[in-house]
Amino acid sequence: MNILWGMNIIAMKVTVGALAPFTAGAARLAIVGLICAPWMRPPPGRVRALALFGLITGGLFLLFLNLALKVATNVGALAIVGQMAVPIALVLGAVILKERMNRAQLAGVAVAIVGIVVLMFDPRIFGELPGLLLMLLAATAWGTSSLVQRQLAGVPVMTLYFWTGLMGTALLLPMSLVLEPGVLAKLPGLPFAPLAWLAFSVLGATLAGQGGMAWLLGRHPLSAVMPLTLAAPVVSVAASHWMFGTPVTASMVIGGLMTLAGVVIVTMARRRALKEMGA
């Protein structure tokens, strides 16, 4: 799973470069929606939540992520910033749902934020600031979708993916046609490599990787599952350095480790809080 997720951002960087941000996102989501079409029927009373989840997870998340990949070159740095989705989800839960945060959770969020600041103010990374900020918006979209997903307990994973594909395509396809005219027509004539990476993104990262995560989360608490995914940004950083020659600096390593440490603290503190509530 770490390899699938870690390599996914590489796959998306290649497809965005071969096509364009909105077109690459629309193509990926349309394929996901078509594959998952047999599971399109929503459970009663869940249509609005499914539509909102799909719009955020598919549309807004990929919109910001693909724009970040378009304007930034250091894919590894983007992968590290993407880990902020977990602390952001916690903060949004406190602000929107009025959930209480304990001291350990606050400390974890603070450590993660400091890690991102250390990363951003690296002179070799600072030039990537627009892309990093777009990645923060993508992480915010992902964190927001996790709150919506709480209303979808028991909904089959493939149904979630169908609505993600449907609503994401509904947002990104018109943007592709209007803002990237003629790019969609290039899709059938793409070289093998971008098409292969697109297939990997759909089948490997989305259906297998995220599907596996959903399966694990359905059987184990978040705090037990999330640490298993922390190697994904390490894979991304190593693969980005190997494939694109992007630098790996001391500040990047320190900031990345601090961010990951913050995510671990937040996750473990949440597990402890849930145990205390159930006691």
Q: Could you give the topology of this structure?
A:
Layout: H1 2-18, H2 21-35, H3 47-71, H4 75-82, H5 85-96, H6 103-120, H7 123-126, H8 129-149, H9 157-179, H10 192-217, H11 222-225, H12 232-244, H13 250-278
Helix pairs in contact: 1-2, 1-10, 1-12, 2-3, 2-9, 2-10, 3-8, 3-9, 4-8, 4-12, 5-6, 5-8, 6-13
Index terms:
mainly alpha, 13 helices, membrane, EamA_dom, 279 residues
What features would you describe in this structure?
Pfam families: EamA. Residues 3-120, 130-267 form the EamA domain. The chain crosses the membrane at residues 14-37, 49-69, 75-97, 104-123, 129-148, 160-179, 195-217, 224-244, 250-269. It is found in: Membrane. Its main location: membrane. With 279 residues, the chain is mostly helical. It has one domain (2-278). 77% of the residues lie in helices and 0% in strands. It is built from 13 helices and no strands. It has helices at 2-18, 21-35, 47-71, 75-82, 85-96, 103-120, 123-126, 129-149, 157-179, 192-217, 222-225, 232-244, 250-278. Helix 1 (2-18) runs antiparallel to helix 10. The radius of gyration is 18 Å and the shape is globular. The two termini are 33 Å apart. The model has no long low-confidence stretch (mean pLDDT 86).
